[in-house]
Design a protein that fits this description.
This protein has 280 residues and is α/β, with parallel strands linked by helices. The protein is built from eleven helices and four strands; from the N terminus they run ββααααβαααβαααα.
């Protein structure tokens, strides 16, 4: 497997796991088979020109886009099965951590990966419990004729999503704790990210200049308290093309949109005048 650390802004990084070898259908687990079947069903509904299936897909895609990109990143990591655990310990399963060294120093890459894999664990556990509580409550909606029980299916999907995120985080913790990750700084990523650093021009500069620019950008970010977006949608498409991973594009588009929206809202909140109105 290949794990990618892709900074979206000066403070947020997308984690993405690429599985190099897909399991044959006969070796896929129940969860994988159900997931594939649900994906095919959803794709079939997307092709419909109208009807309640099309409406469900439109609203569903709107909700899916708002699921945090951090959760999608953890879900890209497969659950840690007994076979994967044994293959990892025996060295049969090779895992590479790929990152831009201009933004993430090699000495800190594993810590960044560990943080991304574990920092949201309490949140996912809490949300998973609430989804499981809500599923029996929403079950009576199945009595409504024609229309499927959408609240129940949504809660079921979110429960599965939180479980997958927890399982992905557990797998990451296992790899980090057992030193099963090979560090692979990427010159391809460096060539894309280096010109994006604040205070840098697109011209070619030395590694020392890149380090100075990175330190300067971090210092300014801490002083001003402002977060700077690094990847635009256009740069994201260039990154996907350079890495030759087409399935990464939707993950990057979602992450960039979410981070860009969060930064814009943060600036709007700061620009609002203070509430001077006081009760007399």
């Amino acid at each position: 497997m290949r794990f990618f650390l892709l900074p979206i802004s000066t403070r947020r990084t997308l984690l993405y796991c690429q599985r190099l070898q897909a399991l044959p259908p006969e070796k896929q687990g129940l969860v994988d088979r159900v997931t594939i079947r649900a994906t095919k069903l959803w794709a079939g509904w997307e092709k419909k020109e109208g009807g309640w299936q099309k409406k469900v897909v439109v609203y569903g895609n709107h909700l899916l886009r708002r699921i945090p990109y951090e959760e999608w990143g953890l879900k890209s990591v497969p659950p840690l099965s007994t076979k994967r655990r044994e293959e990892g310990i025996l060295g049969k399963d090779k895992n590479h951590l790929i990152f831009p060294e201009t933004l993430i120093p090699t000495a800190k890459a594993i810590n960044v990966l560990r943080t991304l894999g574990t920092e949201r664990e309490p949140l996912h556990k809490s949300r998973l419990i609430w989804c499981l509580i809500g599923m029996p409550i929403s079950a009576p909606f199945a009595l409504v004729p024609v229309i499927p029980n959408l609240p129940f299916f949504y809660l079921a999907y979110r429960a599965w999503s939180h479980w997958r995120a927890l399982a992905g985080g557990k797998h990451i913790r296992f790899l980090c704790d057992n030193n099963l990750m090979s560090l692979s700084p990427s010159s391809v990523l460096d060539s894309i990210y280096s010109p994006l650093l604040p205070g840098r021009s697109a011209s070619k500069t030395s590694a020392a200049d890149a380090e100075k620019a990175k330190a300067s950008a971090t210092h300014r970010s801490k002083e001003s308290g402002e977060e700077t977006l690094l990847l635009s949608q256009e740069k994201g498409r260039q990154l996907v093309k350079a890495l030759e991973i087409p399935e990464l594009q939707i993950e990057l588009e979602r992450a960039i949109w979410q981070v860009e929206t969060a930064i814009r809202k943060g600036k709007e909140e700061k620009s609002k005048p203070p509430d001077t109105g006081r009760p007399k």
